[in-house]
Structure formats: C-alpha cells, structure tokens
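Discussion board: Methods & Data

I've been asked by a reviewer to show the raw model output for two of the constructs in my manuscript, not just the figures. I'm not sure how much to include, so I'm pasting the format here to get opinions. Each protein appears as its amino acid sequence followed by a line of discrete structure tokens. Is this the kind of thing reviewers expect to see in a supplement, or should I convert it first? Here is construct A:
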Amino acid sequence: MVIATGFFDGVHIGHRFVIERLVSEARERGDQSMVVTFWPHPRNVLQDDARNLRLLTSLEEKKALLKGLGVDHVEVLPFTKEFSRLTTQEYLRDVLIARFGAKAVLIGYDNRMGCDPQTPESIERIAEGEGLDVIRLGSVASPSGGITVSSTKIREAVAAGDMEKAAAMLGYEYSLLGVVVAGNRLGRTFGFPTANIQLYEPLKLLPGNGVYSVEAETLGRKFKGMCNIGVRPTVRAGGQRTIETNIFDFDEDIYGLDLKVTFHHKIRDELRFDSIDALQAQLAADRAHILAE
C-alpha cells in the first residue's frame, strides 16, 4: 500500500498535487493507494481556540473529493488525546505499517505526524528506518499571485468573501450543503422568496456576510441564484447569521430537501436599508446584475 496521511481540509490544489503523485506512484508499483486522514480536526481536541475553527469540507465531502481523484482507499482515524500521544515512529510502525500495510509513504514539505517535533527530513529518516520507501514532495503555489497554498489561507479568503481567490487555491468553487428549513417568508411577500438552509456540517466555514452570485442545486437540477449570508439588518436587528438563497425561475416547495449552494463571487456587502421598498429595489438590481454576467 502506498499511503499519504494528513487532515486534507479542502482537498485543495496543494493536496491534489500530493494525491495525484500518490495515485501515480501506486499504479507504477502495481499497488493500491490509500489516504489516512482524521476526524475531528486535531485543533478541536488539543487547543483551547477550537471554538473558532471552521472547516472547508465536511468529512463526507473530503472523502468524496479524495475518491474522485482516484484514491483506492480512504481510512478515517478518530483523533483523540490518546491518539495524539503517538510518536512519529509509533504512528508509522503501529498504524501505517501494522494496520494498513504501508510499503511507501508520501511526505510533503510541511507534513507532521506524531507528537514529537520532527522535520520532513527527520520523518524521512524514521520512515526509512522502518523499511518504508519515502516519496518527498515540495510546496505548491497558487496560480493567483504565486502564494503557497494552505487550508488556512483558503479559510481567510472564504471568510473575507473572496470566493474567486478561494476557488483558485481550492481548484474548484466553494459550496455549502444543507437542508431547507422554514424562514420568516418575508421575501415571498415582495417577490424574492428565499430557501434558508441549515448546514449538515455545523463546523463548515461560512463566507463573509454579503450577497453572492451562486449556483443552486436541488431536485437534481441546477439554477442561477443569489445568496445572502448575514443577519438581515433591514428586517431584524441583532439576529443570528442565516444562509438565504433566492433561486431564479424556481417556485417549488423544497422544505426538508437538500440544497447545495456553490459560490461564484461576491456582489456586495450586506446592507441595512431604510425600507422594504429600498431592499426590494436593491435585490432587483442584484438579480439583474447576476443575470447579465
């Protein structure tokens, strides 16, 4: 088995470089490829600031993305405090080799494994000492600006509402998946009904507050639309953040059904209007802008 290991949040273009190498190496060796990943995120278990961590992919999204890149096996290990106390050597020997039959392991430029602070060079020496072939990989730069890609930088872009920058680093457009729940139905009264979603993964990162050009997918079909993320300051002061999508040319009851919202780019910030009429006029302008793209 040829194995790559890590959390792989987002399965971004840096991760894809690793996975593509993993799959090709396994095929050249006449072996199978495996990604060994973890859930929950180590920060959720080990750090006090875990309440602030939001993820780019749910576990199911991550597994689907990895499988879509040709990985033969995706194994998910529960990340616990006990697990976190394994040393690099113990992790390689007792988990990757003894449990999963590793013959070769990929080590990225910032790969970490085990509780002992090791550099990629020292991890390589330990792995070779355990009889593993080691495949070393370098860093990957984003085509947008040449910056080194990381899940942290993508989270920063999504949180800032820069969906185009996030997509350049991810290699695909960012999306949210949830179930449609009842809202206050106010938008329906002035011609802009919205589908409110409750996320299946509560730790999924929301784009920054604002109005976005999106693709809405439900009932096996895809539609243009616009999504507002925010607190709806015109109709409710101090409210909780909501995800409301106006699906263009669509008027079906989808309460209780899945809705996937894929983000193209941000149209504007969320604003407070003096009246519902002013809000309605702005929404009409937003819709016209998106349809003209």
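Construct B, same format:
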Amino acid sequence: NKTFSWYPGHMAKALREIKELINKVDVIYLILDSRAPISSLNPVILDVIKDKPVLYLYNKSTLADLTSLKKIIKEENYLIIDALQKKNIRNIPKKTNEMLADLLEKKRNQGFLNYPIKAMILGIPNVGKSTLVNALANRKSASTDYKPGHTRKLSWIKISGNINLLDTPGLLWPKIEDVHTKYHLSLTGSIKEELLNKEGLFNYGYNYLMKHYPNYL
C-alpha cells in the first residue's frame, strides 16, 4: 500500500510543452481506458486543460464491460470507441464539429470557410493515443508499441477533413497513492509491470476477476 511513482523525465518535459501549447488548440481529446475509466483519468491532465472543450473518448471498448462502463460515464461529450478495431472512429470528427459549432460559425463570419480545427490528444501511457491518430488519419502516422512510454515527443499530424491532431506522450502523475489505481494501471498496461511485485499483481487481478467475472475464468 505504498505510494507508487513512475514519472520518467520525458513525461515531465511533455507536460511543460503541453502547458505551453494548450491555449493554441481548440479542443482536447481525452482518451480513457474503458476497462479502468476512473483509474485512467489523470488528475494532472484535468488541471491543465481547465476550461477547454473536452471530448472524452473511452477506448478499448471491445475489451470492456460496457454495461458497467455506461453507469460510470458522467460527461456530456463522450464517445465509446475502439481505435484498434476502428469502432465508432468516424463519429469523432462529427462530434468535434458539433461541439465547436459556435467557434466555426465565428470563424466563417471572419472569412475562414474551412477553419482547421486543432485538437490535442491527451491520456495516460498505452491508452491508445497513437493508434487513434492512425485510425483517424487512415494511415500509419504515429509509431505504436504495446509497452507503456513509447511515444516520447509531441507531433502534429494532418488527418482528412478539417482537423489537425497533436499527438502527445502518455502522462502519469508523479505519485500514485491509491493502491487500486496502481494495480489497475499495471494490469491494463499503463505502468511497466516489472516495477511491481509480480505475485501481488497476479493475486489482485485474479481476485478481482473471481469477484466480478468468475465465468470468464
């Protein structure tokens, strides 16, 4: 039950760069893991985005208990997606344009008939940000890896339509104090499993499944 920390230097650097660029984007795509929607919500990210419009994207939904997930979701602007399976991806640009209707109307009145929306993707490591970028761009524009911490720098990527995406490294917060969050993030691949006690990690995951989903075992 000790406080856990995995906050390498590239995360601290990325956070500084995100803070510098946050006012230059129109909308935030905040990606969460559908299997751990509460644990994958980084409180540091919430502090950074402040009053920016946010589209919550619950990714990896084909691996999740959707009945339980829908009971947890409180946000008005959200989509349940799966970037790898390309589920519900086409609705992201549509939802984005709906959310920014007032801004787009203002830009049209200023003479920008096809204003390029700037979207920043944020989330914890290995939640599927780069996979989503590739799905939206319909090509491999961002490098992906199953290990957390693969993306190390920010990069702009143009997709079809009027949206430009800023891909960002996965961010954790400096100290994870809740023991459940620590195990959830490790079991879903957002923390290097080598950093945790394997026996404790296995026992937590096994007992959780036995309690909630014994039939799957």
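Answer (T.O., handling editor elsewhere):
This is acceptable in a supplement if you add a one-line summary per construct. For B, something like: The beta strands are 27-33, 54-59, 78-80, 117-122, 155-158, 163-167.
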